[in-house]
Amino acid sequence: MNRLAQFLQYTGKLFALQGLLRRVRDGRSTPQIPVRPLVVCLVLGVVMRIGSYLDLAEQTKSRRRWRHLCGLKAPVSHDVFGYVTERLTPEDWRQNQAQVAKELKRNKALESCKIKGLLFLSIDANEHFSSFSRTCPRCCQRQVEGLDRDGKQVKVTQYYHRYVFAHLSGPKLNLVLDVEPILPGEDECAAAVRLLGRLRRVYGPRFFDGITADAWYAKGPFLQALDKLGWLWIVVLKREDMEVFQEALQLSQDQKPSVAFRDEQRARQVRLWEVKELHFSDGYTKRKSVQVVRSDERWTQRRLEGGNKCAKPQQSRWMWAACEGLSGYPAEVIYHGGHRRWGIENQAFNELTQGYHLTHCYHHDPTSMLVQMLILIFAFTLFTAFARHSLLVRVGELTRKALAHQLDLALEQDLPWDLWFHSG
After folding, report:
1. Which of 11, 50, 98, 150 lies 20 to 30 Å from 70, alpha-carbon distance?
2. Beta strands in 240-307, from DSSP E residues, in sequence order
């Protein structure tokens, strides 16, 4: 069967894709082109890994079947996509993403992401775009070293955009739930709290169980905000000047590990020490204690040096602080939950950057950039779910990049493409 037809049938049957796209509101007062053909075009552009509005406009110009599938009567210029995305409502795309994510959870697709029955959400920030000349009212600013015309070192202003991502990861599926822009003058934690507050409203308090984050978020006020939101939490401890770090290190020194095991997935020998009832910081309420898990990990790294294969023993130490609510769980839960945070780097940022042009600025307008980012995670989720459904992808005979290419080639087959998004 035609691969693109399979994708459209799958997403239509499981997620009611036509209905989701009909819900997107149009902020234009007198639109000359209906919004739905443009929205279909934007979503399919991400699925087929088209990297700019210029390239997307070329699809509408050079491919008659593309226009038939999207419902366009004539080619569309790249300026139209920028103009339209400025006037779309981000909340419509957030609701669409929530609908897809909830359907995936109902179909048990998120079971592989759980650790001892707990579903941990990773949060982290990623830079989207930077420039020394292009700027907008929502650009953050920083001073960086540069060279003037005479080759002298000078301080220059760089403008950039960063977003905080909320991500669920596992061995079989990774899913970005939402993103939140970091506003000028605020730090990641402020944007993260705003993001998590919206996730609680949109997804409900029990869609996931806890938060895992890196050392940047190991701050008392942020952790207190998580307690108020009602979620468990695990954060990396890196700052050796923190009292809780030194206390946990000293109390676990020269003690037998609580547990030792081999992590087959990461091919490491692991020993864990667990220290409970510690005071985190003055910024965190003294009425609640935290526990710290220390992990010593050893493995053998094999690589090629000077044409010869060599194996070198490696070791690393990790420490995590966890909330009081996790005290009844074994230390392995905190170990796996702490390392699960790397999924946002490997399965979200890296994949979206390499395959889906995450760091490309399609149109430098705050609303347009946010809407395009939300369309990106929405279409990426549709494609990821379809790839997971494909037997060839599951058994490793077909890569996701090759699958996206097959979707693109499938459009060249002579099928009634004009029927897909024109009914209902």
Report:
1. 98
2. 259-263, 268-278, 290-305
Largest interatomic CA distance in the chain: 74
Q: How confident is the model at residue 423 (pLDDT cuts 50, 70, 90)?
A: low
> What three-state secondary structure class fits 157?
strand
CA angle 410, 412, 413 (to 5 degrees): 75
- By CB atoms closer than 10 A (0-12, 13-18, 19+), residue 162 is middle
For 75-104, give the DSSP string: ---HHHHHHHHHTB-HHHHHHHHHHHHHHH
CB 319 within 8 A of CB 293: yes
Q: Which amino acid is at 16?
A: A
Q: Show the tokens assigned to 80.
A: 């139209």
**Percent of the chain topping pLDDT 70:** 99
Residue 385: its H or E element: helix 366-389
Q: Which is nearest to 61 in space by CA: 51, 49, 76, 72?
A: 76
Sign of CA dihedral 14, 368, 343, 209: negative
pLDDT digits (tens, 9 = 90+) for 311-329: 889 999 999 999 999 999 9
C-alpha–C-alpha distance, residues 275 and 278, integer Å? 7
For 271-326, what is each residue's pLDDT tens digit?
A: 999 999 999 987 887 678 999 999 999 999 888 777 788 888 999 999 999 999 99
| List of residues 6+ apart from 359 with CB closer than 8 A | 127, 128, 129, 353
Give the Å distances, CA to CA, from 21 to 25, 37, 97, 305, 423.
9, 10, 11, 53, 13
* Coil vs helix vs strand at 237: coil
Q: What is the pLDDT of residue 124?
A: 95
Query: Is 59 a residue whose pLDDT tops 70?
Result: yes
- Characterize the bridge pairing of strands 210-213 and 232-236: parallel
Distance (Å, whole) CA 395 – CA 391: 6
In 3D space, the residue among 326, 260, 239, 249 whose CA is nearest the CA of residue 294 turns out to be: 249
- The candidate with the shortest Cα–Cα distance to 266, out of 167, 218, 332, 176, is 332
Q: What one-letter code names the amino acid at 92?
A: D
DSSP three-state, residue 250: helix
d(CA 130, CA 140): 9
